[in-house]
Every structure is written in C-alpha cells, then in structure tokens.
Amino acid sequence: MSSSIENPNSSLDLHKEALIIIKENLSIFPASEYSKIADLVKKYLVRNQKNPQDFFNDLKNKNPKASIDYVLLGFSLEHGIGTIPSLRKSFLKFQKAAKAKDPLGEFFLGHCYLDGICTSQDRAKAFSLYSRAAEAGNLSAQNNLGRCYQNGWGTKKNDKNAFELYLRAAEGGNTIAQCSLGWCYQNGCGTTKNMEKGFELYSKAAEAGNINAQNNLGRCYQNGWGTTKNVEKAFEFYSKAAEAGNPSAQNNLGRCYQNGWGTTKNEEKAFTLYLNAAEAGNAIAQSHLGWCYQNGWVVTKNEEKAFELYSKAAEAGYMNAQNNIGWCYQNGCGTTKNMKRGFRHYLRAAEAGNTNAQNNLGWCYQNGWGTKKNEKDLEKAFELYSKAAKAGNTNAQINLGLCYQNGWGTTKNLKKAFPLLNPDTNNLTYQSDIKTSQD
Fold it and tell me: What was the pLDDT predicted at 39?
C-alpha cells in the first residue's frame, strides 16, 4: 500500500496525494475491494486534519476543473468520501473524465460498463475504454484488458493477447497483473506451463501486500506447485490473507483447521471461517457450510439449510455444489425427492468436468435413476467412470474396476479390474453409496 506524504500545505497537495493513494492501490486491490482504497484516503485526510467533507467541497467548487478532478469526484461519490454515496453521480463524473481522454477516468468508466454499475452492462464499451487507457499506459487498464481477452468480454477470446497484457502490466509493478500472470504460467494460458514461474510471481505480488497472491501462494505450498510442499507455510499465508479479509483464504484456512493441515485441528474455528467466507459470497465456502449443516458438523443438523447453501453455491458456478444438489434431489435431503432433477444436476456438473458428478451420473445410468434405462446405459456408465477414474476419483476407480470384473459396459477383464479394486475388500460389491462431497 502507498505511504502518504504527511502535512501537505494546500488542498491542491491533498488532492494530488489522494490521487497517488488511489493510483498506487489500484494495483493491489481488485474492484470488489475498492472501498479499502477509499478507507485509505479517508485515513490520510484524518491524519492531515482535513475534514473529508471540506476535501470533497474543495473539489466540487474548483473552477476550472481538470479531468483528473472529475476522477477524484467520481471516486468520492462512489465511496462516500466527504459526501453521500451516489453511483449515478459517480458514473457521470467518470464519463466527463473519460470524455476528456483521461486514462484513469477511462479505466473507471470501463469498470462501470463491465459490471453494469449505474448503466446497462456493455462489455464492448468496457473493452474499448480499457483499450484506450491501456494504450496510454494505465497499468490497471492493461490488466483488465487482459481479463477481457482471457474471458472473451467485449472481444474474441485470445489467451496470447491476455498473457501479453498481463506481462506488460506486471512488469510495470501492478500486483494484480502479477497474480494474473502467475495464473497463466501455472495453467499454461497463452504461454508454456511453468509452475515455478507462477510461484515466483505470486511471491512477488504477495510480498507487495496483494492478499489474493498470498492466498495463491498458500495453495502453491499446500499442493507443492512450483515449490516444495509445506503445509505449515500454506497455513501461514492463508492466515495472513484471511486476516486481511480475503474470503477464499478464509475458506482455505477453514480447511486447514478442519483437517489439521499445518496447525492443530479446530472444528469450531473451521466452521466460523466457512461461515465468514460464505457470508462474503465465496461459493466454495457456501458449499462447505452446506456440508456442515447436512452432516450436523459443529452445528445442529439442518438439511433445508444445507440445500439452500448448495443452491446458492451452484448458482454462482461451483460445480461440486451442483453435484450435491443432485444428491439432495435424489435422496429428498432438504427438498422433495425428484430423481429426474437429481439426474439433471449430475449431468450439468459432469459436463463441466466435476469428477464426483461423473461418477454419480454413471451410477444413475447403471441403475436407471432419473433416466430411462436402455441397453447402452451400461456403456455410458463405463465411459463416465473411466473419465472420472482417469482424473483420480477413487470412487470412480473402484466402480470402473467392478465394471471390468463383471463385464458391465465393457469386456470382462480381471487383470484390469485387480489394480483398480481395493485389495483389502473381501466382498466386492458395487459402490452404490453415492453421497455429497465437501470438495
């Protein structure tokens, strides 16, 4: 975070320093956390004995106004710095700044169009505004333009262009872009996969105070991505990011407490962290919390609450929750039993690559649950078990072994069956105990 110049001599100096605080911290805080930048500005004004309302009025009454004054007014109106928040008025100020070709004004206006803030969502306009601001050298706009290319927002999806824009912004010191670039290296998006380079970039951004990078660094240590596996280090970085309010880190820290990864097991702390992250909108934490309510883990069992939380997480795109809803419909857990709906939810999650759902969908095809059974369904079940087993799903591996053992949907092959089946199991029967999964 930026360090401020203390005791400026005039309102003009105050305005300049507020602008520096905003510019520097845009490289650390994502759009969802811009209110934290506003808090830094407010704290700065208090330290320098300036009433925020006077700060805003000085800007408002300034004549003539420079384009950057409109940016400051827009940011103040959006976040209530010395005035009552007004998103509509904020949008109009950013519009004036952008019309004057101010890169920061174009960036903020692009953000309004990207998320539909006080205007209709228009990703093509957002892309155009980010393009102009990025060309003028605005690092935050370069990062967001990369996001547009990566996701196909307002333009054709282009991973290579996304990578190049993240690289440019990251080299300029933008820690959000460093995180994005780390992700690209980690996943081979627009470049050759390089886990070590991903780890290096997360480390750099984390050291600069980026809490998303701290969380990502925790995941690297937890899984041994680009570095030696170290659950104690993972716990340390999750703790740091969680304390700073990162919902994803709070969820990950909850997992550490639940399983004793890098710390002593503490179920109450785990539940509280899931609750905090879920209330902040983290879909994975909502699903974990649903699992807690479904199983009466730390909290009184409440299947209706579990179904509600799974539904919320699934709506946000978390496919494991989609799988869990399928189970709820299949078993009448927290909702009316409906095998066909259960099947549809499994199908949706399976098509998105969720291995638990692929295994459960295979079970449905094999047993005619929620679908009309026909002679080809055993082959479909075999294909789904194969796909999930290849991805490492242990339940699917057992079910695939049983298919080979019994000739279900494939040619009987005991040699292939043997390594897939649990050698300690004396009475091998089909794994019909489909259940919800926390992960």
Answer: 96
